[in-house]
Amino acid sequence: MNNYIKRGRTMTFTAPAGGVVSGAGVLIGSLLVVAATSAAAGLPFEGVAEGVFTLPKANGNAWTEGQLLYWDSTSNTLLVAASATARRVGCAAAAAASADTTGQVRLHGVPSPANAA
Question: Dihedral sign, CA of 54, 11, 86, 42?
Answer without folding.
Answer: positive
